[in-house]
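Dear H.,

Thanks for agreeing to be a second pair of eyes. The structure we're designing against is below in token form, covering all 553 positions.
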């Protein structure tokens, strides 16, 4: 759309050149001294000149500025633009195309233009020239060699070819197509297959059809410069390839741990269903990953007995091969079993550096791990004192404590390591326990000295032997009146009836005593006496004691 601001002093007819369209604007009339703004549509695209052949259709088109929908008519000039006449088409809105059907040679050189109407001025497009050539088409190729059928095994290289010629000096080109049915049309274009020969894929079993379209291109033809011819189809059959069946392993060999020198057997079970023949070859490997393989001589059966004379771990696998000479593909197929370990172990050597810590009735054994553990982890140690204890599990890590031994007595202690192969060699040591020093008891005290209990209540008295390291720490307990209070072997006193009782503790060594007075509160005692006091007197003579008195009620 073009907007014009026009100011004039006289009535005039103004012709202006549209800068944006290249067309001509004519017939704008304005009143004197008036100033007005006019929105006028313009052509944004003009019709283009075209060259066609007799009998072809041709279309001229234009586009106009946005948001404008003017009426458009088309005009033709047969005298190089000197005069113009309207075409037979109707003047209407958005009439932006002119279609000429089946042009004739008489229309050669005609010019066509579009005119926007409905305004005080006409907006005229640039003119387009129609050039009409007489017909001279490229020749159809003549196919002289057709592609032929092929039947092959998978992955066999084959070549299809086609040959053709032309008589108009044109240039031949080729394009191959594939099809799932026996038809030389409607196929799939094969990219890159654009020469007279083609190598179809043969990796997949099945049937496919191929044909070639031969095109003659002659740029000197005044009509159609190309013409095509299509070959017949070639049937390509990829037959199924039958290989020897890969063996199926039913039972894999298993990992084995064996004591050195003992016999073991590795076994594999496999099967096939194509009537082939199975053979076996066992291999020895450096690692579980199957690296460093070495075939084992004469190990060619499903069963194999490896050497077990050397401690260590060795890895094995077996390759099973199926051989079938009746197949049309590979006559052999093989599969390898999993890699298994054979761990040969031995019992461990004797523990090293056996030592003792000796006391009166206790010996502590210590030792170090054997230098040779037999190729298997040590799982424990067994010990013996060679007298009472035959063999027991050690109660510490690389140590054991024997307790309750006699003093000043000779013992021979033994220790041996145990692994998965069993117990190993024995290390032993002979020692004499220390002679026991006797320390006599010189006295005893009890605590507390005075205790008040309710009937049924109880408490435990404690005692202290002097000296503290006396050899014999045994004591006995007694109650002078068991109807009032009783005491057990642990010094626990229980009140039974109201009254007082003297609880005495006596050492086994030396018969030293100490006493505590227990007063039980509650119902009266059955002896009809009432304890009313406690006193400590110093009687004539040696020693001390606890004295009490009572009165009758």
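And this is the sequence the design step returned. I haven't edited it by hand at all.
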């Amino acid at each position: 759309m073009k907007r014009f601001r026009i100011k004039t002093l006289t009535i005039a007819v103004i012709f202006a050149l549209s800068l944006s369209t290249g067309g001509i604007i004519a017939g704008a009339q304005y009143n004197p001294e008036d100033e007005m703004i006019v929105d006028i549509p313009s052509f944004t695209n003009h019709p283009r000149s075209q060259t066609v052949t007799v009998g072809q259709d041709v279309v001229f088109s234009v586009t106009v500025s946005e948001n404008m929908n003017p009426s458009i008519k088309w005009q033709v000039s047969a005298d190089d633009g000197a005069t113009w006449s309207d075409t037979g088409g109707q003047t209407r809105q958005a009439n932006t195309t002119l279609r000429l059907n089946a042009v004739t040679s008489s229309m050669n050189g005609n010019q066509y233009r579009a005119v926007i109407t409905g305004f005080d001025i006409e907006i005229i497009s640039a003119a387009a020239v129609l050039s009409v050539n007489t017909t001279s088409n490229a020749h159809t190729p003549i196919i002289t060699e057709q592609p032929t059928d092929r039947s092959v095994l998978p992955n066999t290289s084959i070549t299809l070819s086609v040959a053709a010629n032309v008589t108009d000096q044109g240039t031949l080109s080729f394009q191959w197509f594939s099809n799932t049915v026996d038809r030389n049309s409607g196929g799939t274009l094969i990219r890159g297959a654009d020469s007279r020969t083609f190598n179809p894929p043969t990796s997949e079993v099945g049937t496919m059809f191929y044909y070639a379209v031969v095109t003659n291109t002659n740029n000197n033809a005044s009509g159609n410069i190309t013409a095509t011819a299509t070959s017949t189809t070639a049937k390509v059959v990829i037959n199924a390839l039958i290989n020897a069946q890969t063996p199926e392993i039913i039972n894999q060999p298993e990992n084995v741990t064996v004591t050195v020198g003992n016999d073991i057997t590795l076994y594999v079970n496999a099967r096939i269903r194509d009537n082939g023949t199975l053979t076996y070859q066992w291999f020895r490997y450096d690692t579980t990953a199957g690296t460093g393989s070495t075939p084992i001589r004469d190990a060619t059966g499903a069963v194999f007995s490896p050497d077990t004379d050397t401690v260590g771990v060795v890895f094995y696998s077996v390759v099973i091969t199926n051989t079938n000479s009746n197949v049309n593909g590979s006559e052999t197929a093989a599969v390898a079993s999993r890699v298994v370990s054979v761990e040969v172990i031995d019992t461990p050597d004797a523990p090293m550096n056996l030592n003792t810590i000796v006391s009166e009735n206790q010996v502590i054994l210590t030792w170090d791990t054997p230098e040779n553990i037999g190729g298997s982890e040590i799982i424990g140690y067994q010990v013996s004192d060679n007298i009472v204890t035959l063999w027991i599990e050690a109660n510490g890590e690389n140590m054991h404590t024997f307790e309750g031994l006699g003093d000043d007595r000779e013992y021979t202690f033994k220790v041996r390591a145990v692994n998965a192969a069993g117990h190993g060699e024995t290390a032993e040591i002979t020692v004499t326990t220390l002679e026991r020093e006797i320390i006599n008891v010189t006295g005893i005290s009890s605590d507390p000295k005075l205790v008040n209990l309710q009937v049924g209540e109880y408490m435990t008295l404690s005692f202290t032997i002097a000296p503290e390291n006396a050899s014999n720490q045994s004591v006995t307990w007694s109650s002078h009146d068991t109807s009032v209070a009783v005491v057990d072997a642990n010094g626990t006193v229980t009140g039974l009836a109201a009254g007082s009782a003297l609880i005495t503790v006596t050492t086994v060594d030396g018969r030293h005593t100490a006493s505590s007075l227990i007063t039980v509160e509650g119902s009266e005692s059955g002896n009809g006496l009432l304890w009313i006091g406690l006193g400590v007197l110093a009687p004539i003579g040696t020693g001390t004691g606890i004295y009490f008195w009572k009165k009758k009620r």
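Two observations from my side: Residues 4-30, 524-553 have pLDDT under 50 and may be disordered. The CA atoms of residues 27 and 92 lie 21 Å apart.

Warmly,
E.
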